[in-house]
Write a structure and sequence with these properties.
Elements lengths: L1 H5 L2 H8 L2 H12 L4 H8 L2 H6 L5
InterPro entries: RuvA_2-like (IPR010994)
Length: 55
């Protein structure tokens, strides 16, 4: 895991063989993620409609 932290996104892409997974892993290791920020993005008018009863 120590090696993964030191790798660039391009190096992770070569090791993992998948650019999407490499980008996600790189972002998870190198960027701060605020759970409250993610929680507020999921709320809103679409969240209310998601579970609305069909008439």
């Amino acid at each position: 895991m120590d090696n993964a932290i030191k790798m660039s996104e391009e190096e992770l892409k070569e090791v993992l063989g998948n650019p999407v997974d490499a980008r996600a892993l790189h972002a998870a290791l190198h960027h701060d993620h605020n759970p409250k920020e993610l929680e507020t993005k999921s709320k809103g008018r679409w969240a209310k409609r998601k579970f609305a009863k069909k008439k």
